[in-house]
Amino acid sequence: MPRFNRDYRLLVGPPGEKGVEILPPLRMTFDIEKNTKEEPNEIKIRVWNLKKETRDAIVEPDNVAVLYAGYAEEDGPLLMAYGTVLQGWTYFDGPDVITELDVLDGYAEIRDTVVTLGYGPGVKARAIVAEIAKQMGLRLLMADDVPDRTWQNGFSYYGAARMALHKVVQGTGLEWSIQNGDLQIIPRRGVTKRQGFVLSAESGLIGHPERTRQGAREKAKVQDKRTGDNKNIVSARQQVDGWRATSLLLPTLNPGDLVKLESRTVEDWFRVESLRHNGDWGGPGDWQTELELVDRNAPPRKQK
After folding, report:
1. Is 50 exceeded by the pLDDT of residue 55?
2. Residue 299 pLDDT > 70, yes or no?
């Protein structure tokens, strides 16, 4: 089905409040980068020609920004980005007044949450993660069948929530990230339990996918049998095969989701390693989602 009637809804205001609602026909652009790393996803939003009181209200640091976008021919605007306003400012461009927001997903929760944890012998990683999510004020997205671990000697911790999460998931074969204000826990190099999406020309695929190979983060050291010198190499098992694809906007897709890529060159299921949503309401060009897809059977990446 053709998708031409773009729609969006932007809400910005203090935590716990509805805040200011911004709608078409005001021009709005977005550039959203998401990945499965522990650092917050980055969101950049610009809006044209707001009233002064609105401009002054939305640029306040620690505001919450929620962006919905989509196509009227389908389900209308859907949740695409959520986060804390890091900074905002207004500038003039000829006759236009442009307000720009830098937003980070989960920034306030990661920055501000200090957790106190104390468990006796036999506690499960799942229980620890659930308590961390509770103290961070985040909804936990974790399937029932993800790997678990028993801490035989108990578990205690006081400090930054992000460090506690890293410690627990690293030892359990999991990875964590914050996606749209939710704490997402999945197996390392695994996928979410959300329904897989088939990406083809009929569902929005633009052009032809590009083959990629992601190099290892660290090179392996081996000894040259002839000279005895140490040499750095990257083995095939350390590299991750994948594809780079571009689609019409897919606002509900997130890192860790499962995507089946269907084109003349490839037809298989992959994990979304990262993505970028970008578009301009009221300006030229398509609303697009750029996807980095990787082989689900690739070896887990090393955790720092």
Report:
1. yes
2. no
